[in-house]
Specification:
Layout lengths: L2 E6 H9 L2 H16 L9 E2 L7 E4 L4 E10 L5 E10 L8 E4 L6 E4 L6 H7 L36 H7 L3 H9 L3 H8 L4 H11 L4 H9 L13 H7 L2 E3 L4 H7 L4 H4 L3 H8 L6 E5 L5 H15 L8 E5 L2 H14 L2 H4 L2 E5 H11 L8 E3 L1 H15 L6 H13 L6 H6 L11 H21 L1 E3 H28 L6 H7 L10 E4 L7 H10 L8 E4 L24 E4 L1 E2 L4 H11 L10 E2 L5 E2 L5 E2 L7 E5 L2 H18 L15 E5 L2 H14 L4 E5 L2 E3 L4 E5 L8 E6 L10 H4 L2 H4 L1 H19 L2 E10 L9
Parallel strand pairs: 1-5, 9-15, 9-16, 10-11, 10-14, 12-13, 14-15, 17-20, 21-27, 22-25, 22-26, 23-25, 26-27
Antiparallel strand pairs: 1-8, 2-3, 3-4, 4-5, 6-7, 18-19, 23-24
Adenosine-5'-triphosphate binds next to helix 11 and helix 13.
Length: about 775
Amino acid sequence: MTARLRLYRKAEQELYKLDRSVKSDFYNFCHHFRDNPELPGLRKKQLKGDSRIWSARVSKDYRALLTPTGVDADGIESWLLIAVRHRKDVYEELQVAVNRVTGEIEFVDLSVVGQSALRRAGITLTPAEPEPETKPQAVEPAPEPVLAAPALLSAYDAGQLRELGVADQLIELALIVTTSEELDQLLEGAPLLSKDVLYGLAAGMDIDDVRREITAPVELDERPDLDDFAAALSRTKVTTVDDDVRDAIEEGDFRAWKVFLHPTQERLVHRHYKGPARVSGGPGTGKTIVALHRVKHLAEQLPPGHSKPILLTTFTKNLTTDLRLRLASLIEPELLARVDIAHIDQLAARVLGENTAPGRGKQRVYDHVALNEMRQLLAELDDRRFEPEFLLEEWEQVILGQAVATRSDYFNARRAGRGRALTRPERNHVWKLIEQFTARLDKLGVETWGQAAERAARHEIERAAKIRARREYKEEIGGKDLIHRDNSSGMRYLGYRYRHIVVDEAQDLRPAHWKMLRAMADPDLPNDLFIAGDTHQRIYDHQVALGALGINIRGRASRLTLSYRTTKEILAEALRVVEPKENSGKITYDDLDDGTDNLAGYRSVLHGPKPGFVPYATWEDELAGLAATLTAWRAELSTDENGAPLDPSGRIAVCVADRDMVSQTMYYLETKAGITCAELTKEGPKGDGEIHVGTMHRFKGLEYQRLAIVGASDGIIPRTSAIERYRTEDPPRYEREQRKARSLLFVAATRARDALNISWHDKPSPFLPM
Ligand SMILES: Nc1ncnc2c1ncn2[C@@H]1O[C@H](COP(=O)(O)OP(=O)(O)OP(=O)(O)O)[C@@H](O)[C@H]1O
């Protein structure tokens, strides 16, 4: 080998999309180039516009564009491959430069920029290899516009854009674009930082916010040498072209998240945190991706061993399966073996298992079973002073939530957010009822998951207290081994269960879960807890203030804002569900602590069709409409861009409000429309039907290429029959129920990657953005 080739990120992404035959020519090209870049057949030559760019022949029609990046430490010539293009798309005006903010190599390609903007800027693109029969493509001078439209970014000047890190060649153009379509064209092939800054400004972000949230995180401490390409290469995200690259490119886009983190994502993955840290961000901004890479980073730092010092946990079982699969594809089996992956209830159950004598365990039941027991108890006592729902919530949120152990503690317990105040005699009565209720559950040999979480937290807190006591004692006696004491108390091997804990979907965990997790990792060590979640997506009633639970995230909270999943069009509508403009009392969302969170700057650079909002007269009509939509979608997803057959199974989903509607929808689709379905359950899709159907709760954390939300009618979202009475009886609860329903719709709508259809019968849900 006389030359080493590296692939620029954008070039790799372009390669995914090329035809198989071009890819194969490209592999041959790499082979020859590495052997001898001067091989005459490669026809390597400098572009006239930017002499740092060389073009070389991949095949009759395709060219590789390369820039020399010095000589590697082993004396081998180094080249960066910045693009693979059809020869017609190679222009002299292509440019490569070192970015003054990040110090990375950036490739600027104006061939994707719209003609109208180029014309206004007086830029003419000159083909590097003009077709013999055609003249160079000079662009006609533009007729003077009668009324010039105002520029989109007229509030800014070139100096500001340059200072924020926009590539020089784009600045003049960015200042004259007048529509968001022109901006999209300008930024399609633009370097990442330019894209982030310009989209941020266009989305209305304040210049100081852009500086703080976009530029500062990727800025070098010192201004880079703009001519030193070898140094710049070391800062640029590239893939070395070796024999593995062929497989990688064959894997295509699916691999992108494994390799290319956005700089703001990467910073969170690699940062050293002195204590617990938290990442928030709207749907699809890559919180799960960051959590997975964080696990990888932490696993790579571990000293050798066979233990599992890292815990990766989330809220539900099916998401655990997904995390395991994705982590397995990201890290080596030896590192994977050091990670314990379990959902939060499973962890609690494990702790209880360890602390319960064989045969003494209780069966865990869901809240609706407990509610039935409460109803029966009140009926037997003929006691109508309190609603069973109210009592169950009082128990869950106040008594269990704050670990209230005695009646006198309950008299003094905080009941913030619980709606109606309770007098002392009322509290006394509630306490008695709840005592009878828990005794009843006990007798039946059952407990709720909430109770289990509380018990597990207590065991873990006791365990942590023992560890600390042992440590303090050891310090007192001057660090000597505690052989006698340890042998008698069985504490020799007692230590914190995990060195690092990474939590996804954090917004739905209960206070008891946090207490348990806090006690499972040493609070004195850095990088102990890494927490990813979005409170706009909270769909269970578990609000927490982490600070009060011993988890201090102050100064270690960050937000991701760029969606990698959802298109601009879908995102705009989804945002109106959780942040409705017409709502006079603005809805606020907490930050898992005492502050608030928001979705400012939340954006996407992906485009797609506008979401469909379709009214129907009846449920039956709506199902018929759904069948027609699904049939069309299925046909469209059955072939790829080149007409080759594709399996559409598992890429389309239908989301409804409740289990009854799941059954009705599946029955209709299977019996009347010949469409096979798989129900989304707690464990994931059941069976191998082509369309996944599930309730909104089941869609948490998932994504689909196309999604239909059906039955989004008034009275269903939210379910008026269940919550209407709270409007007067318990207004705070009414608010909470409304907010949960909004968040559910928000979660559902943001599962769609490319296309979203929302329909209803009779009147639409008041939460729909219309
Ligand atoms: N750096 C990246 N490069 C390519 N794809 C990415 C990147 N980051 C995230 N993605 C993709 O974006 C999608 C959403 O990512 P992810 O599930 O991590 O988002 P999230 O913030 O956890 O979403 P949600 O809050 O809705 O659960 C996934 O398909 C993921 O592969």
